Sequence to fold (710 residues):
Amino acid sequence: MDNNTILCKGNDVIALAAIRCGCDGYFGYPITPQSEIMEKLMEEKPWETTGMVVLQAESEVASINMLYGGAACGKKVMTSSSSPGVSLMCEGFSYLAGAELPCLIVNVVRGGPGLGTIQPAQSDYFQAVKGGGHGDYHFIVLAPASVQEMNDFVDMGFDLAFKYRNPVMILADGIVGQMMEKVTLSPPKPRWTDEEIIALSGSWATTGKPSGRRENIITSLAMDAAVAEKFNEKLQRKFNEIRRREVRLEKIKCDDAEYLLIAYGAMSRICEETVDNARAQGIRLGLLRPITLFPFPSEQIAAMTPQLKGILSVELSAGQMVEDVRLAVGDKTPVTHFGRLGGIVPAPDEVLAALKRTYLQNENE
Amino acid sequence: MKIVIKSFIMALKGAIAVNTERCKGCGVCVVQCPTGVIALNKNVNTKGYNYLYMANPVACTGCTNCATVCPDACITVYRVKI
Amino acid sequence: MDVNDIIQPENKVYGKTPVLTDTEMHYCPGCSHGVVHKIIAEVIEDMGIQDKTIGISPVGCAVFAYNYLHIDWQQAAHGRAPAAATAVKRLYPDKYVFTYQGDGDLASIGTAEIMHACNRGENIVVIFINNAIYGMTGGQMAPTTLIGQVTATTPYGRVVELNGYPLRITELLAQLSGVCYVTRQAVHTPAAVRKAKKSIQKAFENSGQRKGLSFVEIVGTCNSGWKLSPVEANQWMVENMFPHYPLGDIKNEELGIKDWLKQ
Fold:
């Protein structure tokens, strides 16, 4: 085993991955259950090695606006928080999306609403996927289910952010953030030089106006209605392109499945065991795990409907992703939600029981 | 003494050029002119503002007071020593 | 000598700096914003830092500041310019970064961001325009509105019992150790404009020397909001604003942050 493979906590690996992928700046504010991300960064002191800036801001409002300032410079910048802190950032999200700024936001979700609980939850799906801030916009939303994916999605997130000039969110949960697993760290990449930034983003980023180039202006303001509509249409074209090109998902034992679980993040790992337990009882169950929540794998789910008798969308929420599943499936297959709330995580057999209760009672009778 | 004063008067002769389309006729410059050179025109520019003009050009010393306080940077000042 | 003989390129002694764009400003006639934009542009020209300067415009009347200076600009969310500027300066330590904020932006919704940027001693310049009213939204009360001053949301005048006191945020921020230079200026007379320009230049120089945050308040007019002519507004400012917001340097610390930390 090489020394890049370590045992690591999900939150800690976000910090290590950020340094290793050449991130220029992290701006954050402590909140459970993700404070280890900034703690780890401070411990690693990347400003002495890669030159990465790490700053504890006075609030989530400040950190997201620091992200705005940094992203507007064409730098690779990121923040992390958990649900109540992310709510505070929503104004900034809208501005970032409106100014088309590439950046990475990690949300290690805890239960809400309000101050809620510090236990894991997936009840911020709507906020992450449908907007959160005002206006017609989307983030690209990645849902890691392992510490390895926490590592991998940092670099991938920055790639997507710069490819589309759009914010990317890693929507994790308290389980993935807090658990320890074996992880192979990505090979280190140097930070971009100022020349590389100008080559990549010099057409729009505020890098200082040399004579001979127009001034670069980062704003989301368009007073003229016709201009604002054109800009919004351009944004929608971008989101549609993302929908076409960036869907990521994992299918587990789906080939012969009659019933399908759809779950993401930590919940998908539990459902994986549910699938095994069901198959041991002769139930042909599969699992579809969306890796991108926006774009949502609607077509891929819809394509499976001919073989399916029922879909159970399993979430640590009162039923949020299930709405997108229903939109994908229409009336072709029955869709039901199962979830636990308040930070309670269901066991695999609890999920299986819910599946049986919903779809298999008549067959058993 | 008389000669000194005369040479002072003769020393600086100024004039201003006003970007009359940019001028909003706010008049903050008029009250800052120490020699009473400038005034707002009875005529208006295409936006309807009574733009600035030199009503009494001979008195201009090119002191730049008017241009310094102008919020719209529409006054250029010229000065010659005679 | 004829006027046309004097108006020759070789005789030019003052004109619009090329750092200012040709775009006509959207500000009302006589608005102080225009003068402040102009002197910032002149300082940038004089210091030769056009390619190294990044401005952060606010929400409020000056939201469109980015249309008027030939430099790279970011337009921040309401009150958040100091946070954005913090990141820009930290990520580009060799650039000159300034925020341009009004009284609603800086002294009301953005109090946390300005206070902590000051306290961290960010090496940025903050230009704070205080005209004691919200201009862009139509003349509502600002935190700096004077007692008795009539605005759209204090139609019978600002009352302490209801609205609290006019906030002297500049004096408040001067207490913070990360701030090296705090001054209050105005732009209503040629002498005042020249002094204000010197102050802004000093603030930019401090930024270059990494002395900490430099804060320049400009007491300005909002003749539309105050419902006065531009000339009357200047007079009203002298008589009513200056007693509560006296002009002059409030703090002029020659110590750098590093020296301060050693103490």
About this structure: Chain A has two domains: 5-194, 249-364. The radius of gyration of chain A is 21 Å.
